[in-house]
Amino acid sequence: MKPAAFEYHRPDTRPEALALLEQHGGDAKPLAGGQSLIPAMNFRLATPAVLVDLNRVGDLAYMRVDSGVLRIGAMTRHRDVERSEDVRRAAPLLFEAMPFIAHAAIRTRGTIGGSLAHADPAAELPAVMLALDATFRVESVRGAREIRATDFFTGLFGTALEPGELVTEIQIPVTPATGPRTGTAFTEFSRRHGDFALAGVAARVTTDERGTCVSARIALFGVGDRPMAAAAGARLLEGQTVSDDLLRATADATAREDIDPTGDIHASSRYRRHLAGVLTRRVVARAFERSRVTHEE
Amino acid sequence: MNLAGTFTFAGPRATVWALLHDPAVLAKALPGTKTLTLAGPGRYEGAMKVSIGPLTAAEFAVVVTLSDEIEPSHFAMQIDGKGGVGFAKGSATVDLAEGADGGTVMTYASDIQIGGRIAAVGQRLVESVGRMMMKQALDSLNAELEARVKK
After folding, report:
1. Which CATH number fits domain A61-173: 3.30.465.10, 3.30.750.24, 2.60.120.10, 3.30.930.10?
2. Which ipTM score applies to this complex?
């Protein structure tokens, strides 16, 4: 299959890239790793008139930790994130999720910014960013702004990005290894490894020294038109210590109130809802376990 | 895909019935509708361009045939859409009941099959797109209804 005709630009610098995106507005798509966009173009499900290839723009791929924030350049490949010692220490949830993204060959090419801007409802990274309360730096020729992950995902493949805007950096608050006891966990279920998940869950819980939950975030994917923050489920955890009853109540509230999954040939809506509850219970339990371990290290 | 649900319109049943049969109103309400005309008794023909966020649009030629009409409470439709990337074919029923405060409660059910390339590639997204279009259409119809009721 071949794509429809398109105009191709390959700028060398960020200002050139932003100028091209501004000039072509809604007709242009930035090309990052191309692991979603190019197949969609080849199937002619996407027919952008202009591609702005970011692969020569040098200063968009980096990872560094400064003043409690893990900063990842938007063009950083999944494979580099997956192998980063900084990411393992500063954002263990992200580190745990990376191997679930597609296959190694795809991760070698695909980028963190590309995946987030694409906003596939079954993708891992958008939900991880919700659970970690990440912020995205977005730039255009008109300036830069920061958008919290909770405000970024607006619908099916829909984001708060305006025409001409580019995600340039992902900012993740560092998960503390000492001090407040924070634990994170991630899992997903798919028919085969690398397929789009039927459902997946990311969670982060912080407890005080007695093990009482002081804050919790749960995010799900594959069960809605966008990554879903499980507010009802997380609310039940706050002020409580972990128990089987608490985990069950949280999983039930999440599955019943926080999501309204669609069905397809792979899994019915009812099955996805059940699965989301089961995975939520497992992931929240593991996050609590880890919140104890991280402190004892 | 089975889209089903209820929706409460803020206006009388006869007006809702009229809106649901007015091609000009439907063309505005249904997302991506380029043209929609009454081609014969109970037969509507049109062209729709369905786009999902940044993914480009798939264009469909659509024929909707109404049947089993019991004004102002019930009708059924056959839906037949064909496009370059696939097809959509199915049936739906719509029931209108008088609700509280002069409103109208619509209960709808549908069974729509999607085939071709769009189904092969986008199967997992079809129901989300369907729900999104349904919500936009109903909200838009309700806004039109409120405007008419106020006059």
Report:
1. 3.30.465.10
2. 0.77
